[in-house]
Amino acid sequence: MNVGIQMYSVRDISGDDLEGALRKVADIGYKTVEFAGFFGHSASEVRGWLDGLGLKVSGTHTPVAELIDKLEETVAYHKELGNVNIIIPWADLSTREKVDSLVDAINKLQPRLAKEGIALHYHNHDFEFRKNLDGVIPYDEIVSRTNALLEIDTYWAFVGGRDPLKMLDELGSRVKAIHVKDGSASGDGTPLGQGAAPVAAVWAKAKALNIYPVVESETLTPDGLTEAKICFDYLNALA
């Protein structure tokens, strides 16, 4: 089964032992990893671990401030790592001005990254689907005012009142990867198969549309690796 994992899922061990965490998710059966930090390790060191474990990097969550402040350094790191997908994981979008600032940053960064062979994506939570302090729905602004790719976190879209299945159809080629996640409608996460999100339908839709699934589990229930294994086994049973 070809499925990836966001390394935030095993943050309880990855900060202290990133190599060990990579080894353990590979042992579970994950084929790719999406990083949420490198904890001071060089790109060559991390690339060596990936190659040795037969893992590929599917993307990284990289704050927009890092791209603005250290673009050349960041690009060099990712090219050495072999990563072609940089994903903005979150941004403060609480006012119209802050939405405008992100839109402007994306529109400046995207072509510069594209010249380096790197695609820029935005990853949502739930708040982007609700009106901010100025009555703006941030996600709609990002969709309409940029050409960024969109890594849909299907669980947070569900919590935010959107239908992730409909989003996959409507956004089409702008979605290359999704986060597969579960939990309650009120925002309390669970391992896959233990919540109210339409995980099975999302999984089937992703396969039908050839969209790459990345597991992200946030609850460390009872710990990151155990939850990662529960999620992998659940998807394997669906497959």
Task: Describe this protein's structure.
With 239 residues, this protein is an alpha/beta fold. It has a single domain (4-238), classed as Divalent-metal-dependent TIM barrel enzymes (TIM Barrel), CATH 3.20.20. The chain contains eleven helices and ten strands. The chain has an eight-stranded parallel β-barrel, surrounded by five helices. α3 runs parallel beside α5 (71-81) and α6 (96-115) packs parallel to α7. The mean pLDDT is 97.
Task: Summarize this structure as a short list of keywords or feature phrases.
single chain; 239 residues; two-stranded antiparallel sheet; 11 helices
Write the layout of secondary structure elements.
Elements (H helix, E strand, L loop, with lengths): L3 E3 L4 H4 L3 H11 L3 E4 L7 H11 L2 E6 L2 H6 L1 H11 L3 E4 L7 H20 L3 E5 L14 H8 L3 E5 H6 L4 H8 L5 E4 L1 E2 L5 E2 L8 H11 L2 E4 L8 H15 L1
Parallel strand pairs: 1-2, 1-10, 2-3, 3-4, 4-5, 5-6, 6-7, 7-10
Antiparallel strand pairs: 8-9
Helix pairs in contact: 2-3, 2-11, 3-5, 6-7
Instruction: Tell me what the CATH architecture is.
Output: Alpha-Beta Barrel
**Could you give the order of strands across the largest sheet?**
1-2-3-4-5-6-7-10
CATH homologous superfamily (4th level) name: Divalent-metal-dependent TIM barrel enzymes
Compute the number of structural domains: 1
Q: List the quaternary state of the chains.
A: single chain
Helix content: 40-55%
